[in-house]
Specification:
Elements lengths: L1 E7 L2 E7 L9 H9 L9 E6 L6 E7 L4 E2 L3 H13 L7 E6 L2 E10 L2 E10 L17 E8 L2 E9 L3 E6 L5 H12 L9 E9 L2 E8 L3 E3 L3 H13 L6 E6 L2 E7 L6 E6 L1 E7 L3
Length: 278
């Protein structure tokens, strides 16, 4: 099986071109094997780039633990880069479907290769049942979540996948690696949840680390950055346009007031290609 490793702000996945080869058998098992950073290729999961009947391509995602994922804002930028750079869809505006949603992507091209992509992430989902969470509120903004050793104020947003955002004075390893997995599996989140820990640097600038459902801490999370942007506006902490600093790089976010869509801009990089024995 031919694969390509790509990363967006350090959020790295193994991509399989299913235009050129069959969809691999047992994708969850494959995702666990190739994502292993000691015995596999190493990555945050597996992405299948598949033909679509209606748009330029379909993205299927699997986390590093083999669980299916609805959407990743960093991964979909890399899919767009792959489609353009590999002459599958040589246009600067592409449409890609993921989990029954269609996303529009605007490509920035330098020396005939895509280097940055702007993604229309769509409208944030703020109704508790649709996120889903059993916490009260529509929106679920700055509500209390009680853990055995602490109380947190959290805001819940879905960007096609569920997110729990908590604003903190200082992001620590203990918060991300100990509190993060407990929130992921908290009973208030029936489908588990991605967890964002966010510092407010100014009304236009945030710092973020993410404990990603099914993958652990990742260097960046595009849907998580989108959720943090929305949460900042909902709780009165930020403006609608912000720069978010992640461990793997910066993303530019805007929650547009005119159409209620979130727009995210960031890099897309091809790292290397290889063959995986199947």
């Amino acid at each position: 099986m031919r694969f390509t490793k790509m990363q967006g702000a350090g959020n790295d996945y193994i991509y399989v071109d299913c235009f050129a080869q069959p969809v691999p058998e047992r994708p969850p098992e494959l995702a666990r094997a190739v994502s292993d950073r000691h015995f596999g290729v190493g990555g945050d999961g597996l992405v299948l780039i598949c033909p679509s009947e209606n748009v330029d391509a379909k993205m299927r995602m699997f986390n590093a633990d083999g669980s299916a994922s609805e959407m990743c804002g960093n991964a979909i930028r890399c899919v767009a880069k792959y489609l353009y750079d590999h002459n599958i869809a040589r246009r600067k505006t592409l449409k890609i479907e993921s989990a029954a949603q269609v996303f529009t992507l605007e490509l920035s091209v330098t020396n005939a290769l895509v280097d940055r992509v702007r993604v229309d992430m769509g409208e944030p989902i703020l109704e508790a049942k649709q996120i889903p969470t059993t916490l009260a509120g529509n929106p679920v903004a700055d509500v209390s979540l009680t853990l055995p050793d602490r109380d947190l104020q959290i805001t819940c947003v879905s960007m096609g996948n569920p997110h729990c955002v908590t604003f903190v004075d200082e992001i620590t390893d203990e918060l991300v690696h100990s509190v993060g997995p407990r929130i992921e599996h908290d009973a208030h989140f029936p489908n588990r949840v991605n967890v964002e820990f966010v510092e407010v640097l100014s009304r236009q600038e945030l710092r973020q680390r993410t404990w990603e459902r099914g993958s652990g801490e990742t260097l960046a999370c595009g849907t998580g950055a989108s959720a943090a942007c929305v949460a900042g506006v909902l709780t009165g902490r930020t403006e609608r346009r912000v720069t978010i600093h992640l461990l793997g790089g910066d993303l530019e976010l805007e929650w547009n007031e005119a159409d209620n869509h979130v727009y995210k801009t960031g890099p897309a990089v091809e790292v290397f290609s290889g063959d995986w024995p199947c």
